[in-house]
Hints:
mainly alpha; Arc Repressor Mutant, subunit A; Four Helix Bundle (Hemerythrin (Met), subunit A); 2 domains; two-stranded antiparallel ribbon; about 5% strand
Amino acid sequence: MPIGQRARKRPKLSDLVVEDVKRWIVTERKQPGDRLPNEKELVELFGVSKSTMREGLKALEVRGLIKTRTGPAGGAYLQQVSLDHASEPLRNFLHFHHLDGHHIYQLRKILEPELAVSVVGRLDAKQLDLIEQTIRLCEQEPRNDIELRAQRVAELEFHNLLADKCPNALLAFMCRFLNDLLRDLMVYKNAWEHRHFGEANLGFHSKLLQAFRDENADAVHRLMTEHMVDAETHMHEMEVHVGVQQLLMPAGRRHA
Length: 256
């Protein structure tokens, strides 16, 4: 049967409750920490049975939208969905599509310069200090693999700190999501040891920090654009190096 003629799967009542509650949150402009009405009021509000409402609330809790508390002040409370809660299922989905660095940098090259410019003038002294700390960590000569990995993580944290101040929540999420995807890729491919990559990142990050301090948007955009192009080149070199190592490794150890 053609796809267009297939019968659509009828949604469960509890799934409709989830959508109704999310719509109610938006229309009523609810905020994290707000308490939902009690069960009886919710049943009346959405016109469903107690069992359906309980199933819907459980689904909302699993999705990270509410947190149930017990005791005198108990009930269901709205909570901000964490970045990890929102990001991990998407990353799990994409891992089965065999992504490589090129796929990630196709987007990073577009989004990171836009994000960087959006935070010019928004970075306070505390934020600039935190950014500088990631740079100082990467200036030190790593003594072992643990310190080397810590430096790669710090290089990504540089970009996450910028995302924290981005006024566009969607742009910030997309950039942090790509950073997490890149970190996952490096973990799974064991692509950590690449000294030239670290040196290049350090140079660009130092120049970017100064451009942020000077609030020079043109310099920030130019430097971040060059940084992303350069980083993609180094990422490709790392992936080629890792691929060669895996080919040379005895078959029994390749998936260890």
